Amino acid sequence: RREPLALINLKKKNEETGEEELASRLNHCKAKATRHIFLIRHSQYNLDGRADKDRTLTPLGREQAELTGHRLASLGLKFDQIIYSSMTRATETTEIISKHLPGVKKISTDLLREGAPIEPDPPVSHWKPEAVQYYEDGARIEAAFRNFIHRADAKQEEDSYEIFVCHANVIRYIVCR
């Protein structure tokens, strides 16, 4: 769903019309609308929590989420959905933001959970995940990219506006990918 040519079976080509039919089929697969994706990192959270459920938003984090919700609402856009990580800090951020965007559908997914998608280059001293984590997290975050980051469907008539609330490493991966 990234290139219209990838959506066409090139083997099914009418020998008589040839290129004209290909152009027509290609035009039929092109997106007529644009997907606008807002990537938002969760707000500040309690770093001292041992488990995910203990890593709740701090008072500053709740204020950050409120301000983000206000700002998104002030844009005057008709948001279609909020897709968010199932981790506590992203879920709490989403709940606060969504109060300012009534009626917007919310979808939680484990694919957007924080992780180590790829080994940092150059290496960093403060963060050294186990090597196996790159394989597990990398595959999951790549699956999130393939699942959620694509052009609008050819049938989509109007632009869409979607919010993703997730984590710094996931956002970096999506932007760089």
TrEMBL record:
Its encoding gene is what?
Pgam5
Q: What name does UniProt use for this protein?
A: Serine/threonine-protein phosphatase PGAM5, mitochondrial
Q: Could you tell me which InterPro entries the record lists for this protein?
A: His_Pase_superF_clade-1, His_PPase_superfam, Mito_Ser/Thr_phosphatase
Q: Name one GO cellular component term.
A: mitochondrion
Known Pfam families for this protein?
His_Phos_1
Q: Does the keyword Ribosomal protein apply?
A: no
One of the GO BP terms on file:
programmed cell death
Report the family membership.
Belongs to the phosphoglycerate mutase family. BPG-dependent PGAM subfamily.
Organism name: Nyctibius grandis
Annotated Gene Ontology MF terms?
Answer: protein serine/threonine phosphatase activity
